[in-house]
Structures are given as C-alpha cells and as structure tokens.
Design brief:
Layout lengths: L7 H11 L17 H16 L4 E3 L5 E3 L9 E7 L12 H15 L8 E6 L12 H6 L18 H7 L17 E9 L4 H5 L3 E7 L1 E10 L3 E2 L11 H13 L9 E3 L3 E4 L5 E2 L2 E10 L2 H21 L3 E10 L2 E2 L2 H13 L4 E6 L4 H5 L5 E6 L15 H19 L7
Parallel strand pairs: 3-4, 3-5, 5-16, 6-15
Antiparallel strand pairs: 1-2, 2-4, 6-14, 6-16, 7-12, 7-13, 8-11, 9-12, 10-12
Helix pairs in contact: 1-3, 3-11, 7-8, 9-11
Bound molecules: (2S)-amino(hydroxy)ethanoic acid and manganese (II) ion (2 copies).
C-alpha cells in the first residue's frame, strides 16, 4: 500500500493555526523557549498528534516527542526541528519542520511495513530568545549539554528550573534526555532557507551540505552612572558610549576577514534614563563561520577589541562565552537519499550551506544528519514577514516524507 501523500490542507491549516499562538502586535510571532506561548504551541501539537493516534512525551530536557521515542532493539529515524521562536519572528522558522515531521510520521506510521520506526521531535529552546542557552534540547539529546550554572536564569530574571518543570522537564535529570546513538537510524530536518539563494536560483529544494558554527558572547560593561548635566565630559565612565564603539568594532570583524558574519543583536543599558550616563550595559555578540578555527579566532578577537575599548574608556568589561556550536558537514549518504527522492519526482535541487544554526548540527554528533531547505520569499527570516509559498511548503514536506520512506522501508537504505 503506497504511503498517503502529504495532506496539503492539514499541513497549511496547522501552520496557520500555530502562527496565531504567540502573535505579537507587529503581526509577528513571539514564542521564546519555555514561555507560555511556547507551552501553548506544544499543547496544540500534542492534541494534533494524539488525535492521529500517536504517542507523545516530554523528556527531561523539555523536548517534545510526537511519536514513539527511540528505544532498544530498533533504530529510529528522527524527523524534527523546533517550535520556539525569536522575538517578533515569522510563522515558519522551526515550526514548519515540526509540522512537516508530524505529517510524515502520520502518513508513514499507518503503513505498518517500515523496517525502522519513524518519529518526530520538537527540540526545546533552539533559539535561546528568553533562556540564553540556544539549542538547549538538541544539546541535551546529543549529550553535549555544557554543565548548567547553579541557577540558569532567563533574560527576564526567571529561573530555567521552574520554566523547564512547567514544560514537563527536569533540570536535575537532563542526562535522561540523552539519546543512545545505537537506537538512531538518522536525523532529518526540514527548514526554510532563511536566505536568498533558492529564490534567486528559482530552485524549490535545497540540500544542505554544511551548517556554520557560531559563538555567542554575553558581555557586561560596567561604567559609572552619573548626572548627564553636571558631569564634565572628560573622565566620564560611560558604558553606553563604550558599547557604541564596541558595536562598530564587532561589526568590522568580517570586513577584516576574521569571520563570515558578526552581530550584536541584544543591548540593554541601565538605568536607561535620558538624563543619566549609562552605568551598565549588557550586550550579546554572535559570530559565525564555516571554519571552526576561524570561528574561535574571531571570538577571541572580539573579546580583545571589547576589552581594549573598555579599558581606554575606563569601563570594566566582562565577556562570557554563553554558547557555541561547531560547524558541521551533513551526512553524504543522507544527502544522496534526499537527492534520489527529489529525482524520483523530477524536482530540481541545489546544494547550499546554512548560515543559520540548526538542531541538526547537534544531532550530527551522534547520528547521520541532514537538512532539506525550501525557499524564503525575499530571503528574509526572524521577521514577521518571513514567508514561503504554499506550493514550496507542501513540496518540501513531501520531500521529507519521501526521503523518510526510502530510509525506513524494508528495501530502503542510506543511498
Ligand atoms: O540563530 C540561528 O542561526 C538560528 O535561528 N537558531
Ligand atoms: Mn531561527
Ligand atoms: Mn530555526
């Protein structure tokens, strides 16, 4: 019996309904990991999966399983991505991969002739938009979680311990979320490209060959708050003026050929009052590169520049490496399986590197991992107007499902 094709109406309905959860005034979606909106989206996916007769579970790291969890005696194909978003995100980043993964599991599980189980996962807190450890769930699943600080705290001061418990996880049992590689066949992630290449080349399916690495620094600049009117300019210890110079010094790193991209995306000044010199600034640095050595040299240069500017301005700088992810190559055999699935439907494909980080790069440490991209209209993402055409969304989901079927059917193999 052939597999049911992707159900277009069901796929698009779910994406539309999920886009209403965490909707912000700007028309974007704000569902930071472990936020109430994130929990609501999880409940939505649990209802949808259980209505299809699938088992669901939440592991100790807060990862949401939509289908059977990997278990001894079998090797499970895991399809997934993330439900959480950045602030004022679009409707597709992450969630498209989770909805498509569920769609594939619903259509393939009913076949009952698979040689390997297939399941779907929504990794917890991939973005790190509220609780600063990005890739939280896939780091835990792949056994790469750095030892959490005593009381991991979100940007808004709330405790991760409480938020994780509310999501069904357990901070004291994180290692129980670790997957056994012997129980995994592979990991596949479908995602929007979030860049301009596929749209420009008019190619509907991207096969990701590499995913860039990333280092995220949390920086605290401590100056001296003082009256804006009565404090002479010479001798000020202005944390915000130092931050302004630091923003440009970090932005210059790619131009000076240290790394591919460098961004300061978050900056908070205190007391943030119009007539007080800022005494404290907290900012984040995000540097990325496809080469691991360059990545770490660039992060080192960023710290050197920050400390030199701070010292010259009699501001104290403290730089902490908050998160980092290795650049990875995806699995060549899986890439061939995706290409073969596309060829069976005469769908053109393009190899490309991902400038965005993904849970797939964590999973690559324990099992063959690969990604399928679909075009992003205007090449934009992490903004409310992030979009992909319905036809491209459905075709991408069909490619995920076809590849999954080829890998899990009795005659299937890693091509
Ligand atoms: O930041 C990223 O690359 C991804 O959106 N987490
Ligand atoms: Mn993202
Ligand atoms: Mn994403």
């Amino acid at each position: 019996m052939p597999a049911q094709p992707v159900n277009r109406d069901r796929l698009l309905r779910r994406l539309t309904e999920l886009a209403q959860i965490g909707r912000s005034e700007s028309g974007g979606v704000t569902r930071p990991g472990f936020s109430p909106a994130d929990l609501e989206a999880r409940r939505y996916m649990v209802r949808e999966a259980e209505n299809s007769g699938l088992p669901t579970a939440v592991d100790a790291a807060g990862n949401l399983w939509l289908g059977p969890r990997p278990h001894p005696g079998t090797t499970t194909l895991v399809l997934g991505s993330h439900l959480d978003t950045v602030v004022d995100a679009g409707p597709l980043d992450g969630v498209y991969g989770v909805v498509s993964a569920l769609e594939a599991v619903e259509n393939l599980t009913s076949l009952n002739l698979l040689a390997h189980p297939v399941t779907a996962i929504a990794f917890a807190n991939e973005e790190g938009a509220l609780h600063p450890q990005p890739f939280w769930g896939s780091l835990a699943a792949s056994g790469q979680m750095p030892t959490p600080t005593a009381a991991p705290t979100a940007y808004d001061g709330t405790l991760l311990r409480d938020a994780l418990t509310q999501a069904g996880g357990n901070l004291d049992a994180i290692d129980q979320a670790r997957l056994d590689p012997h129980q995994l066949l592979a990991y596949l992630e479908l995602h929007i490209e979030q860049g301009p290449v596929l749209e420009r080349e008019r190619i509907p399916i991207g096969i990701v060959d590499a995913i860039v690495g990333r280092v995220q620094l949390e920086v605290e600049l401590t100056g001296a708050a003082a009256h804006a009117g009565t404090t002479p300019m010479p001798g000020r210890s202005d944390a915000l003026a130092a931050a302004a110079e630091i923003v440009l010094a970090v932005e210059d790193l790619p131009a000076a050929d240290w790394c591919q991209v460098a961004t300061i995306g978050r900056l908070e000044a205190a007391p943030n009052s119009p007539n007080t010199i800022a005494g404290l600034v907290h900012l984040t640095v995000d540097v990325r590169d496809a080469d691991e050595a360059r990545l770490h040299q660039a992060a080192g240069e960023a710290v050197r520049r920050i400390e030199s500017i701070a010292q010259r301005r009699t501001v104290k700088a403290s730089c902490t490496r908050a998160a980092s992810s290795k650049p990875v190559l995806t699995d060549a055999a899986l890439r061939r399986s995706i290409a073969a699935a596309a060829a069976r439907r005469a769908v053109p494909t393009l190899p490309l590197t991902s400038g965005a980080g993904h849970d797939a790069q964590m999973m690559a440490a324990i099992t063959p991992a690969a990604m399928i991209f679909v075009p992003s209209i205007g090449g934009v993402s992490h903004v409310p107007h992030e979009d992909t055409s319905p036809d491209d969304l459905v075709l991408g989901a069909q490619m995920l499902q076809d590849t999954a079927l080829a890998l899990t059917s009795p005659t299937g193999s890693l091509a």
